[in-house]
């Protein structure tokens, strides 16, 4: 079996060799035309002339091109447009590495993959340096101006393993905004430390400084102090506690045999057609379960106002604002791309992957309104005007 496979391998190698030779010939042809035009047009009337060739290797998506003949002139002024001086590989390599890094491959795995293609080893540190070209983009992205008005800000986070002397779990804060036209966009993210309301407030203040002045609604889970932190930056905004998180936490404290029934009774509350009916459904829930689960029922009673805020908004968007589900897919994708990396070598490594993942989502969302916001546009505009009118 193995003997019969050898000719196939040889044939594949021969084909790769033919392709590389073809690419080499075409590159050399282009450069000969380049220096010809350079001397006949740009250097016309001067004594400058050709001065032979020098050889160099160039890594391409077709493999390594060895002994590439690069023409030169006597004055040393000619420069081909195919690659920069001292460049040893075409731009495809950085792009490929960034794409692989973005997909969750470790720098070691990428290095092995590149070695199989080019026959040349790239160390993890070299791969990491190649992905550093993203760092400048991240810095600019964090400072870009934002819209003045956002109908909704979703706040959520996830924990990742980071190596700083020791490996520990640290949080990635993510803010998703829906602007007044109904378009989604990840506005910012921050990596590091343990999740706290204080850091969330700093992130929100940064958004405010970048132009986010008016917000109708903030949607997030029940992190202690987060509501106060949000209100400190956006005092005129409403707060919606994530109903899905609340239901999940409640069911975790309920006996297994009661979980289905409790979940169905809770649905009658948050799926009611209006707030009046929702309050009636809660009264029924309270009378039915308070003797068996007094703490859980009281917890709902204490938070009912912020759990039912979404009922004050147009019905077309209620299903997307009573929970942080709108941001959950992004969170899951970030987690998925970070998962193969067991632990990240640095804070910068985490930032690069999170940023590249976020850019994918923002590009997809750029031309697509979030469900229900087109129908709610006029009502939301009235809410903006009523809340922000100058008295």
UniProtKB/TrEMBL annotation:
The keyword DNA-binding appears for this protein: yes
Pfam families: Transposase_mut (PF00872)
Domain of life assignment: Bacteria
Transmembrane segments: none
InterPro entries: Transposase_mutator (IPR001207)
A GO molecular-function descriptor: transposase activity
Keyword DNA-binding: yes
Keywords: DNA recombination, DNA-binding, Transposable element, Transposition
Single GO biological process annotation from the record: DNA transposition
Chain's role: Required for the transposition of the insertion element.
Similarity section: Belongs to the transposase mutator family.
Record PANTHER family: MUTATOR FAMILY TRANSPOSASE, TRANSPOSASE FOR INSERTION SEQUENCE ELEMENT IS1081
This protein's name: Mutator family transposase
């Amino acid at each position: 079996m193995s003997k019969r496979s050898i000719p196939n391998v040889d044939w594949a190698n021969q084909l790769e060799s033919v392709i590389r030779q073809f690419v080499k010939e075409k590159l050399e042809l282009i450069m000969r035309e380049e220096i010809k035009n350079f001397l006949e047009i740009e250097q016309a009337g001067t004594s400058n002339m050709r001065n032979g060739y020098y050889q160099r290797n160039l890594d391409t998506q077709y493999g390594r091109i060895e002994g590439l003949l690069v023409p030169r002139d006597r004055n040393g002024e000619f420069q081909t447009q195919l690659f920069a001086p001292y460049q040893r590989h075409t731009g495809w390599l950085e792009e490929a590495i960034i794409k692989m890094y973005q997909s969750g491959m470790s720098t070691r795995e990428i290095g092995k993959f590149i070695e199989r293609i080019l026959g040349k080893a790239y160390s993890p540190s070299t791969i990491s340096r190649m992905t550093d070209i993203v760092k400048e983009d991240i810095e600019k992205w964090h400072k870009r101006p934002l819209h003045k008005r956002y109908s909704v800000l979703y706040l959520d986070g996830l924990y990742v393993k980071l190596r700083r002397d020791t490996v520990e779990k640290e949080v990635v804060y993510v803010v998703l905004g829906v602007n007044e036209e109904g378009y989604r966009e990840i506005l910012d993210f921050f990596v590091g430390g343990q999740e706290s309301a204080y850091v969330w407030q700093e992130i929100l203040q940064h958004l405010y400084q970048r132009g986010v002045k008016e917000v109708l609604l903030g949607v997030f889970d029940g992190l202690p102090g987060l509501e106060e932190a949000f209100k400190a930056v956006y005092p005129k905004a409403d707060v919606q506690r994530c109903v899905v998180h609340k239901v999940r936490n409640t069911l975790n404290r309920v006996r297994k045999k009661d979980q289905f029934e409790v979940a169905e009774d809770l649905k009658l509350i948050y799926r009611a057609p209006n707030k009046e009916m929702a309050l009636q459904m809660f009264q029924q829930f309270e009378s039915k379960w308070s003797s068996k689960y007094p703490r859980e029922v009281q917890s709902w009673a204490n938070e009912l106002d912020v759990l039912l805020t979404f009922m004050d908004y147009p019905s077309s968007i209620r299903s997307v604002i009573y929970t942080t589900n709108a941001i959950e897919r992004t969170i899951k994708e970030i987690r998925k791309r970070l998962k193969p990396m067991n632990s990240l070598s640095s804070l910068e490594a985490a930032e690069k992957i999170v940023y590249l993942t976020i850019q994918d989502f923002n590009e997809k969302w750029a031309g697509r309104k979030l469900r229900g916001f087109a129908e709610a546009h006029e009502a939301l505009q009235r809410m903006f005007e009523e809340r922000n009118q100058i008295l």
